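Question (not urgent): is this output format expected?
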Amino acid sequence: MTQPPVIVDDIMRTEVVTLGRNDTLDLANDILQLGRIRHLPIVEGDRLVGVISQRDLFRSALSRALGYGTKAEQAMLKTLLVKEVMTEEIVTIPPGTPIKEAARLMIEKKIGCLPVVQGDRLVGLVTESDLLRCLL
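Got this back:
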């Protein structure tokens, strides 16, 4: 007897830290660093509108490359909003998606996470780490 395939709903994280479009980048940076996470879904209510990643913050923190100190960089991050650097073209999946399909999408699109949505409502997040944990 064959087992049904493992689906995203079986491995996704449902307690997901989110931010709003008008939050500042210093808050996003603090959450990413303190939570030791790499992706933050951006929502308006329950509706997913974007994702911000460590990579987005690195791109926005050019001040470091220009020789500004930590205080100057933090001051700059306080002036920029999440909506100015977030990715708005988001690849998403529904909870019933087989994890094999989720893994294929992540490799194909070269992304580290997939927001899990029902309609446009965020219900979870699946990351590369979640997929690796499932393999173990």
